[in-house]
Every structure is written in structure tokens, then in C-alpha cells.
Amino acid sequence: ATGKTTLMVQLVTEALRAGKNIVYASLDDFPDSVRASMRIVGIDPSHYESEGRRKLTFIDCYSFLVGVKSKEQYSEDPQRLSDLSIVVSKALSETNDPSKTLLAMDSLTTLIQRSGVRPSFDFLHTLVAKIRSCKASCVTSLSRKAFHPAIIAAIQDKVDGVIEMKAEDTKDGIARYIRISKMKSARHITAWTPYNREPSLGLIVPSNTAVM
User: Of 48, 66, 68, 198, which has fewest CB within 10 angstroms of its CB?
Assistant: First the structure.
């Protein structure tokens, strides 16, 4: 209801437009569904997946979860975290410039639910170190309602930035809010800010408010 995946696709498409490489680890849906979402916001993913000028690479983790053979170059069972870590490293290293690469993982919720808290924490710790060592960037999504607050707090401590989203029922319908509760080395506003969700545009913050 909050639009976490919408925001993820929006960040990925904006990064592609800015010339960055994308490695997209898809755990909650098929990569083709993500490609369809990209087309809705005005980006043709095939343009970024051509041999010789590849900017977009998928790691298909969803097919393993539903028992379907993947057609992607990279695929891995998200419950085999050591193997997934190797695949992520390989995909990052094969971009033309890892320091200009965004790793998107949707979602960390599925990873933790499938693999357990402690193994997932170890994976996240290694992943963060890997991202920092090659000067890449990473964005992932997580459902706060799926885990104990102590688990959420521990995850937030491991990362450089946290964007929170929530949806509330009102007499006029669902009201959605977003805030940046943490962002290392960047000015940001921590107050909850209302936003609208439009599939073809992504998240829209009214012009009289701002989140940064």
C-alpha cells in the first residue's frame, strides 16, 4: 500500500537516466514484471540490456522461490546466502565501473523470512562492506511490520540512509507519508511528508512540501 516497490523502480530508472549501472536482485517478483514497471515510467529496459552497452543486469531470485527455471544471466536461490553473495559480487565486478553502480534488492523482507535473521544479518554485513569497498551504492526495501522493532533498529544501524513510508486510513481514503529518518553526510528533513503515488511518474511529493 505504501509503494515501496514503486519507489525502488523510480530510483532505478532515475539512476539509469543518470548513466549509472544497475544490478537488480529481484526476490518478490519476476524480472519481467520489473521491466514492465520500468516501461510504465517511460524507460525501455531493453535499451540498457544490449550486449556491448549493458547498464541493467538482473539477479533472479524469485524463480527459485516459485519453482520456475530462470531465463536470466544471473539467478540464485535466496536461501543459499553464500552463493547469492558470490553472484552479487560477480554481477558488480562485471559492470564497466562498479563505483557508478547501484545495487537494488527488492526485498530484504523476503530474504530474512526465507533465510532467518542471523544468516541474513551476516549477509547484509558482508554486502555493505562489499558495496563500500567498490564505492558502489545500494538500495533495498524492508517491511517494518514484518519484524520485531529490535530487528528493524539493528538493520538501520548497518546502513547509511533510511527512507520510511507509511499508509493510514482516513475518511477520504488512504493517506501516504514518507520521511528520511537517516541519511549520512546529507541534509534531510525527518518530518513525515505526504505524497501521492502515480504508476507512470512514481512517488509525487506536493510542491509546497519537501523531503530533502
Answer: 66
What whole-number distance in Å separates Cα of residue 171 and Cα of residue 89? 48
Model-wide pTM > 0.85? yes
Residues 6+ apart with CB under 8 A from 102: 11, 12, 15, 20, 21, 22, 23, 136, 137, 138, 139
What are the C-alpha distances in Å from 171 to residues 128, 168, 194, 195? 42, 10, 16, 17
End-to-end alpha carbon distance in the chain:
23
* Domains and their CATH numbers in the chain: 4-159 (3.40.50.300), 161-212 (no CATH)
User: Exposed, middle or buried: residue 24 (CB in 10 Å: 0-12, 13-18, 19+)?
Assistant: buried
CA separation for the pair 194, 151 (Å, rounded): 26
Name which residue leads in pLDDT, 55 or 203.
55
Strand duo 202-204 + 74-75: pairing: unpaired
